[in-house]
Amino acid sequence: xxxxxxxxxxxxxxxxxxxxxxxxxxxxxxxxxxxxxxxxxxxxxxxxxxxxxxxxxxxxxxxxxxxxxxxxxxxxxxxxxxxxxxxxxxxxxxxxxxxxxxxxxxxxxxxxxxxxxxxxxxxxxxxxxxxxxxxxxxxxxxxxxxxxxxxxxxxxxxxxxxxxxxxxxxxxxxxxxxxxxxxxxxxxxxxxxxxxxxxxxxxxxxxxxxxxxxxxxxxxxxxxxxxxxxxxxxxxxxxxxxxxxxxxxxxxxxxxxxxxxxxxxxxxxxxxxxxxxxxxxxxxxxxxxxxxxxxxxxxxxxxxxxxxxxxxxxxxxxxxxxxxxxxxxxxxxxxxxxxxxxxxxxxxxxxxxxxxxxxxxxxxxxxxxxxxxxxxxxxxxxxxxxxxxxxxxxxxxxxxxxxx
Length: 404
Ligand SMILES: Cc1cc2nc3c(=O)[nH]c(=O)nc-3n(C[C@H](O)[C@H](O)[C@H](O)COP(=O)(O)OP(=O)(O)OC[C@H]3O[C@@H](n4cnc5c(N)ncnc54)[C@H](O)[C@@H]3O)c2cc1C
Description:
By secondary structure, the protein is an alpha+beta fold. It is 29% helix and 28% strand.
């Protein structure tokens, strides 16, 4: 059936992070009338830190905004495994690029009409009425649309409403994260880390580091940040609950932001970090505000429910080891827009054509990242094993100036 709006479907996107913004831009290009609603009141700065870029993540910015990959990310030419003594145990060339959440977010935000990006609008529910969806917000606003795209992340209201039994499944470990300015690193640490993605794999843990642009987007070596992630096993239960409780007693579900981790856990982290290979010990010691993220899997059996769909982390949350969560969110948005274009604006036909491929992508990615995480965290990852980075296949994250 054709959309109620004819060839120009009206689309509401809930969630204004990387997945929602990318989807909105592609859908707009495909001829849709799109608006984005994000519950946070201010632009989404300072979230997370580093991301491994993938061609899908930057497809819009390169194709439609003419941005060069050099402007968006820092390059690494080597994958390095460091031994306990800090010496290079294995290295090989690579072509990865790394960026910061803020760099991507700001570039996407510049591309969208500000009148179509609404901050401080929390979706509280939605109802399908005939050929339309009516979306409600905490502010009292109600929006009628032909298609509701839920890009509202791991704790998605859309998914909780449509698939109440699908919950995030804790992986048994958390990622501690932080950044240090390259200028603050001792010369020997900078020399080891600045042109590589570096790993150390331990019996029950692993840590990695790579360069990312600084807060102003600088990508020149010596002016960037070094981003690190240290994956540590924490049993589910009281210990995990307390770790996820902030210094002011607030219990976060899936992360604790910088500055809010309880002091005793920071002290423990710094003490334990002395056992790491020296460059990683220095990184952790010099990080002002380490923060942490719970690692979990989400797998949805469906992504389409009438005229409502789930994309990005809302549908499938992937452990970070494949470095492709943002890429998958972007791919969900791009393929959805292509389907709408191919079906001349017929939302229902487009959704039916779109869903099988994205379900298959989400399932295989969650499985690959889970398998890699289990080996990395439980002492079954051999030094020198190729990294599991990739969206459709291992290795498709490689990027260079001419790359797709
Ligand atoms: C440690 C770690 C490392 C990672 N590294 C990489 C990497 O290297 N490469 C990569 O591609 N990906 C990586 N990822 C994954 C990546 O961060 C996510 O997959 C990606 O950002 C998904 O984006 P999203 O837009 O779907 O969800 P989110 O970024 O979670 O955004 C959801 C948005 O919805 C908003 N929202 C929620 N509920 C409502 C509501 N009711 N109403 C309105 N708004 C709402 C939220 O405020 C939020 O802004 C990593 C993830 C982690 C945890």
